[in-house]
What does this fold into?
Amino acid sequence: MSVDLYEILKERSKYFYKESMNDSKNKRYDIALFHLEQALQLGLKAYLLKNKGDFPRTHSLRDLIELADNECLKKIIQRKWYIIRFIN
It folds into this structure.
């Protein structure tokens, strides 16, 4: 695993999440959703890199969540599928 790439993905994920929160506070909801999607993608890719050693070149949150093979994430996608579908 590339520790540097993991750290970069993790930090970028945090950055996009913070931007999403700021956008939401400023009522820029379309951009907030874009930044939230980016945060989720990068966070999931960091998770996959750390736990699986690699991640696919995809933008599908559903695919990334399924590849993570994490019971907590699977429960979220089952319960909140409409949110994932909306932002992705």
User: Anything to note?
Assistant: The helical segments are 3-25, 29-52, 61-68, 71-79, 81-87. The radius of gyration is 13 Å.
